[in-house]
Amino acid sequence: MTRRDRQEATYDLAMLIGRCALRDQQAFLALYDATSAKLFGVILRIVKREHWAEEVLQDVYLKAWQAADSYNASRGRPMTWLINIARNRSIDFLRGAEHAATQRSEELDDGLPSALDPLRAAETGKEMDRLAECLKQLKDGQRECILMVYHQGYTPTEVSRHSNHPIGTVKTWIRRGLQQLRDCMRP
Amino acid sequence: MRYDDPTLRQQLAGAYALGSLQGPARAHFERLMEDDAELRRLVVDYQEDLSPLALDAPDVRPPARIRQRLIEATTPGSNTDTEPSWWHRLGFWRGLATANGLLAVALVAFIGVGVLRQEPPVPSELVYVGVLSDQEQNPGVAVLAYNNPFRLEIEAKTALTAPADSELRLWIRDRDTGTPVFLAAIPAGEKTFALGEGPWKLLRRAKALMITREAAGSPVSAPGQDVLYQGVCVNLKKWSGAGLGGPSAPQG
Fold first, then answer.
1. Do residues B20 and A174 lie in contact, with contact meaning Cβ atoms separated by under 8 Å?
2. What ipTM does the predicted assembly reach?
3. CB-based contact (8 Å) between A184 and chain B?
4. Cβ neighbourhood burial of B65 (10 Å; 0-12, 13-18, 19+)
């Protein structure tokens, strides 16, 4: 996808969100058709269970419908805005009362290795290239912690448990890793 | 805790964007962001930087039943449809109108393009939109101009009223000269009213709209001093032929 294509896609999504603010249901459905497969993939990667992901996805689009009038360019690109809603809702769902007591079984970690492979990100797009390059510059522990939080929605405590590193170390790795990422992405 | 410390702000913004800031701390941070545009920008920067990780997730087509549920939920009158007031929706326009001018115009135009592109062709199109602010710069009136037939719709945050011996008048500000030109008198108590072809053509020349209170029957050659609202007027149709790659690229 060229920069021009990405810009036009951004314009298209911004336009659809704007029309959602005007309560245009056709625009809302067009937005859903254009983005739901990606968001469903993002949600599924966090909540792991398809019926949970369905519940979260529905919630995400209702939230987008209701909050469309609050969207503007200062909130990031449209897809980033939608992804943030999806990630936040997924994490809230996992940390909700109903699921707080549910211990994640080992099978839930099956998808971890491929999801944590930053090199996949390098396949498409300059931004992905750059992020993958920056991630590679982090220490292994830093990178793993950051990706576990981002992809799996883990808390630092959960990361500590799954990675067998002390919680203090995990928190430090996340903090320093984020700072290094930022310095790398925005020199 | 000192939230004006740049290092701490960076750390919190990063943790929030990543998702590692949790519970009460996350809620507190969200409250801080509400009144701190710079902090929001830091968060958005991190979110943008990290977003390729999410975009890397494989596409998974959701079941058709989700779409159907959303249709039902967003159909007006449904139990779950939370139709906001027009002014709630106006927040979107207001944000655009008070933001960077060109970006605002461009984005409003994109929205307008969408309105104009609705299928099948609707008998009436929204062609001009004006968001007018009062003297304190608070948006108070939206002027929507439709064609087929030509008409204006006035949406006011608080009812527009004028004493019995006066009337409210709508003016355009000419895009070239900046001179106010009389457009129409706003009928008392009317939210929508017809516009003649002459005034409609006048709208093409409008870069801004203005509402004044004038003595009834006074000349319409120029407005008086009692300007109630004024603000930018956008020709949506003008942008419909410009394509989506408009002049101002909204960057993340």
1. yes
2. 0.77
3. no
4. exposed
- Residue B193 touches partner A, C-beta closer than 8 Å: no
A and B: number of Cβ contacts within 8 A: 221
Per the structure block, which two tokens stand in for B206? 């409008």
Helix, strand, or coil (residue B218): coil
- B124 phi-psi bin (left φ>0, alpha ψ -120 to 50, beta other): beta
Task: Tell whether omega for the bond before B163 is within 30 degrees of 0, i.e. cis.
Answer: no
Query: Which range has the worst mean pLDDT, A155-169, B88-102, B159-173?
Result: B88-102
Model-wide pTM > 0.80: no
User: What CA–CA distance (Å, rounded) separates A135 from B52?
Assistant: 12
Of B45, B234, B220, nearest in space to B127 by CA: B234
Residues B14-58 pLDDT 10s: 999 998 887 788 888 888 888 888 899 999 999 988 988 888 888
Cis peptide bond N-terminal to B199, omega within 30: no
Percentages helix, strand, coil for chain A (3-state, rounded to 5) are: 80, 0, 20
Mean pLDDT of chain A: 80
More reliable by pLDDT, B225 or B99: B225
Separation in Å, CA of B206 to nearest CA in chain A: 23
Tell me what the mean pLDDT of segment A80-84 comes to: 93
B221 vs A90: CA distance, rounded Å:
61
**Cα–Cα distance for residue pair A177/B8, rounded to 1 Å:** 15
Hey, what are B12's tokens? 């919190």
Calculate the CA A30 to chain-centre distance.
Answer: 21
Higher pLDDT, A141 or A99: A141
> DSSP labels for A9-78?
HHHHHHHHHHHHHTT-HHHHHHHHHHHHHHHHHHHHHHH--HHHHHHHHHHHHHHHHHHGGG--GGG--H
Chain B residues inside the 8 Å CB shell of A168: none
Confidence label for A8 from pLDDT (cuts 50, 70 and 90): low
Give A-chain residues touching B96 at CB under 8 angstroms: 72
A15 with B113: Cβ contact below 8 A: yes
